[in-house]
Amino acid sequence: MKKAIFLAAFAALAFAACNGEDRDMDKPAITTEGITASPSECDSYERGDTIRFCYRMTDNMELGNFNIEVHGNHDHHTHSTSDIECEHEGEEEHHDAENPWVFNQDYQIPDGLHDYTAHVDIAIPTHVDPGDYHFMIRLTDKAGWQEIRSVAIELE
Asked: 12, exposed or middle or buried, with CB in 10 Å at 0-12, 13-18, 19+?
């Protein structure tokens, strides 16, 4: 009899664990809601300036971390996260960069949060090529779901 009760309890526990109610099945969100986001599409910066990054990040259960990557867009490729086409004065045709800016940094979000506004100051090196760049934000929640946002910027 004890064995039957144990098996029934084990089966109920296993069923509860598999029903998905406590599992995070939704990806997080990178949003501009309620804040003044930066950088914005088509923002222009001088080499040697600072990008004051500010974006709001949300998740239905718990946030994990985010990554900021900046890379050259001198070949005018796309990441398809925005429909906006930036037009800059004196825009050049596709070309190879000699000294492109490459930035890639991970940031941890404090444990237990499902809403977080990130602020990071990012210094732009003076010795990098001017031109078009992608500012990529990758947000990952504790369950491993990821959201990506790409913002087109220009360095002068």
From this structure: exposed
Percent of residues in the chain assigned helix, strand, coil, to nearest 5: 10, 40, 50
Q: What is the pLDDT of residues 137-147, one digit of tens each?
A: 999 999 999 99
Burial (CB count <10 Å: 0-12, 13-18, 19+), residue 105: exposed
Domains in the chain, CATH or no CATH each: 23-84+92-155 (2.60.40.3880)
In the chain, the amino acid numbered 118 is A
Q: Residue 77 is which amino acid?
A: H
**What is the maximal distance between C-alpha atoms in the chain?**
84
Q: Are 40 and 151 in contact (CB under 8 A)?
A: yes
pLDDT over 70, % of the chain: 72
CB 148 within 8 A of CB 136: yes
